[in-house]
Write a structure and sequence with these properties.
The protein contains four helices and no strands. The chain is mostly helical. The protein has a domain of 29 residues.
Length: 100
């Protein structure tokens, strides 16, 4: 089954997504969340950094666990986030006389 996305936030609709919509979107764009990938510990480190330096409020244990469950399940680390190189056959010709 294909993932369903909230059309307003771009978040994956899955258990816990409303927690992220409310608590993360209150301070910054949801694109900041959807553009990141991390394991549970790194997501927790990001939350702790925001609490220490960005005035993010403290969460109760259930809320924090729900947010971390959602983020680590739906925005996990990826092996390689860079796109593959453009094949030489698709690159424009290079003018070797041109200065860079």
């Amino acid at each position: 089954m294909a993932e369903e996305y909230d059309p307003t936030t771009g978040l994956v609709i899955a258990e816990g997504w409303q927690l992220v919509r409310i608590h993360c979107g209150g301070c910054h764009s949801h694109a900041l969340v959807t553009g990141q990938r991390a394991d549970r510990q790194t997501w927790l480190d990001v939350i702790r950094w925001m609490q220490a330096t960005q005035n993010l409020w403290q969460f109760d244990a259930a809320t924090e666990s729900g947010i971390l469950d959602y983020l680590s399940a739906n925005y996990p680390p990826q092996a390689n986030r860079r796109r593959a190189p453009i094949p030489p056959s698709l690159r424009p010709p290079m003018d070797t006389n041109e200065s860079r």
